[in-house]
Design a protein that fits this description.
By secondary structure, the chain is α+β, with helices and mostly antiparallel strands. It has 2 domains: 209 residues, Cytochrome Bc1 Complex, Chain D, domain 2 (Orthogonal Bundle); 178 residues, no CATH class. It is 27% helix and 15% strand. It has 13 helices and 15 strands. It has a 3-stranded antiparallel sheet, with no helix packed on it. A two-stranded parallel sheet has the order 1-11. The two termini are 21 Å apart. The structure holds heme C (2 copies). One heme C (HEC) binds next to helix 9, strand 15, helix 11 and helix 12.
């Protein structure tokens, strides 16, 4: 969100501070603690700006940096030559960060899969690259760019076909899940055989500085790769090549935790999603392809702009949880624990020290994720590995803000490709390590199920 003037912003900030003060007085039981989901970065808003508001505790200097970053996040890139924000493509998926993370939230699933949207395919062939990451498809790389500038050919088109899968809950409620199958059509050159496809949709970008600041040891403490406690839930860290530090690091971002930090994820987005070079990825993603760039070596996005957009994602505030004192919601929180949701969606962490951004340091947060990978079963599998993440493994999604999705985005699509049309469908797609949890959900009495959903919607 872009504030037209600082005054509005100050008014808003004072308002949220006031609300923070009130909520402090009202803290009467332990469950209410989770209301300040982002600690002091919490914004007490439940409208369409709930994901797109700066953390209220930013210093004036940091607020200014954040607002600069906001402009970078919204900047629409065009083809070169252009006085500003040129260099798009020539092949790409979309032309601004905001286009795929509208209102800093989740993109909607495109009706026509090939229109401009926040959805794309990551692709690769069997094997790994020199850093243990996905092996590029010759002539296509590791992401399918389905858009191109005038005079260029997109790499290919995507195809999606739905099949229905019916699940009957114990109280007789029938739910029709739509199971997508994906393929690639009309490639610009012959496509090698056995290309692996991982469909992905843009997710919310608030609260990410906090997730980046969780001490690694606190994440690892929850890992149980070989399920020694035999509860059916393991949880494993991804370790990925970080192009920023040129070292192997704990993966934290992306649906399979394939990126170690927000800077790498953002530089990767400029490169793969938009066809823009940065100091981190100076080579055009399409360089050497017959439909790609013939020139190379120009840095199209400056370090200043890259750092600004990164700072922006690091310092967006987290929306407060709502209704945590309602009886139904309290009941739902107990069921959430009882049926094992909290084994992966771990409620709370305390962030470590980030010397550059004290505002996000040492905060008690309620993201409801363990930041680890879990086998989610065949139904959700993309069958494509990403570093240590297998073809069935995905990172536990944070649940903070999920209940506001309809307000921020006008839809309620969830999961890595947006296939679930609401929270109940998202739960019913869970399998693998979450199979028991899902089955317990199916067995819930109607009121219990409604209580659980009320709790998730309160986050
Ligand atoms: C074409 C659509 C598209 C564009 C453009 C795009 N993104 Fe994304 N973004 C995605 C998708 C899809 C993912 C998930 C990627 C994955 O799982 O590997 C993602 C993931 C992210 C994440 C990780 C969030 C998390 O919780 O793990 C961040 C941060 C991010 N994008 C920031 C940006 C920034 C900054 C820009 C602009 C420089 C940008 N994105 C441009 C689609 C897009
Ligand atoms: C074994 C670990 C695990 C358990 C147990 C688990 N989840 Fe999840 N959850 C995940 C993972 C991993 C994802 C992301 C899957 C994907 O995108 O394909 C996810 C996604 C979700 C989403 C969608 C979020 C989004 O941003 O798209 C919701 C909602 C959710 N879980 C709720 C629940 C509830 C409620 C329970 C208990 C009934 C539960 N989960 C149990 C691991 C788990």
């Amino acid at each position: 969100m872009y504030f037209k003037n600082i005054r509005n912003c100050v008014i808003l900030l004072s308002l949220s501070l006031l609300l923070v003060e009130c909520s402090k007085d009202e803290k009467i039981n332990y469950k209410l603690d989770g209301q300040s989901a982002g600690g002091e970065t919490t914004v007490f808003l439940s409208n369409s700006q709930a994901f797109g508001t700066p953390a209220p505790n930013l210093s004036p200097e940091h607020l200014e940096m954040h607002l600069e970053g906001d402009k970078a996040f919204e900047a629409i890139f065009v083809s070169s030559p252009a006085p500003t924000h040129g260099g798009l493509g020539p092949i790409f998926n979309n032309s601004s960060c905001n286009a795929c993370h509208p209102s800093d939230a989740r993109a909607s699933v495109p009706t026509n899969i090939n229109e401009l949207s926040g959805f794309f395919f990551r692709i690769s062939v069997e094997g790994t690259d020199e850093h243990g990451g996905p092996k590029p498809v010759p002539g296509f790389g590791t992401q399918l760019q389905h858009q191109s500038l005038f005079g260029y050919e997109p790499e290919a088109k995507m195809e999606r076909k739905y099949q229905t899968k019916e699940i009957v809950l114990s109280d007789g409620l029938k739910v029709q899940l739509q199971r997508p199958a994906y393929s690639i059509i009309d490639p610009y050159i012959e496509l090698p055989e056995n290309v692996l496809i991982s469909p992905r949709i843009g997710m919310p970008v608030f609260g990410l500085g906090l997730l980046e600041s969780i001490p690694e040891k606190d994440i690892i403490a929850n890992a149980d790769e070989f399920d020694r406690d035999q509860d059916g839930v393991s949880g494993k860290p991804n370790y990925v090549w970080d192009a920023v530090t040129e070292t192997v690091q704990l993966g934290r971002f992306g649906w399979k935790a394939g990126a170690a930090n927000i800077l790498a994820q953002s530089a990767g987005a400029y490169s793969g999603d938009m066809g823009l070079t940065t100091s981190i990825f100076p080579v055009e993603s399409s360089y050497g392809q017959s439909n790609g760039n013939t020139e190379n070596g120009i840095i199209e996005v400056s370090d200043d702009e890259l750092n600004a957009v990164t700072f922006y994602c690091q310092t967006l505030g987290v929306p407060a949880a709502r209704n945590l004192d309602k009886e139904q919601v309290i009941e739902g929180s107990k069921i959430f624990e009882k049926i094992g949701c909290a084994k992966c969606h771990i409620p709370s962490f305390i962030t470590g020290n980030n010397p550059n951004i004290p505002e996000i340091s040492n905060q008690k947060i309620y993201p409801y994720t363990d930041m680890l990978l879990h086998d989610m079963g065949e139904d959700l599998a993309d069958n494509r590995t990403e570093y240590l993440a297998s073809g069935t493994e995905w990172k536990t999604r944070p649940l903070w803000g999920v209940g506001l999705t309809n307000v921020t985005s006008g839809h309620t699509s969830f999961l890595h490709d947006g296939r679930a049309r609401n929270i109940m469908e998202a739960i019913l797609w869970h399998g693998g390590e979450a199979e028991n949890s899902k089955n317990d959900f199916i067995e819930l009495a109607t009121e219990e199920r409604e209580a659980l959903l009320a709790f998730v919607n309160a986050l």
